[in-house]
């Protein structure tokens, strides 16, 4: 499922908006970042993201 979880309307729940991770991806990528997930055996998942550093002059 990792290849699908950031897609719009993807969910494993019976209820919800199904937009959470898709929205998170849009926000992170809008600011030049990247987001990804990995399975963590026996626990669930780990989500990480990076954002570029803003240089203030």
CATH class: Alpha Beta
CATH superfamily: Histidine kinase-like ATPase, C-terminal domain
CATH fold field value: Heat Shock Protein 90
pLDDT average, as an integer? 84
Estimate the global geometry from the Cα principal axes: globular
Query: How helical, in percent, are the residues?
Result: 10-25%
Strand order of the largest sheet: 1-2
Biggest pleated-sheet summary: 2 strands, antiparallel
At CATH's second level, what is the architecture? Answer: 2-Layer Sandwich
Low-confidence region ranges: none
- Helix/strand structural class: alpha+beta
SSE ordering: HEE
Q: How many structurally independent domains?
A: 1
Please describe the topology of this protein.
Elements: H1 20-30, E1 34-40, E2 44-50
Antiparallel strand pairs: 1-2
Characterize the structure shown.
The protein is an alpha+beta fold. It contains one helix and two strands. It has a two-stranded antiparallel sheet with strand order 1-2. A hairpin with a 3-residue loop joins strand 1 and strand 2. The radius of gyration is 14 Å and the shape is globular. The N and C termini lie far apart (43 Å). The model has no long low-confidence stretch (mean pLDDT 84).
């Amino acid at each position: 499922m990792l290849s699908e979880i950031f897609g719009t309307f993807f969910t494993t729940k019976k209820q919800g908006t199904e937009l959470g991770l898709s929205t998170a991806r849009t926000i992170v990528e809008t600011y030049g970042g990247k987001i990804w997930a990995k399975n963590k055996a026996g626990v669930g998942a780990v989500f990480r993201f990076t954002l570029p550093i803003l240089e203030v002059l």
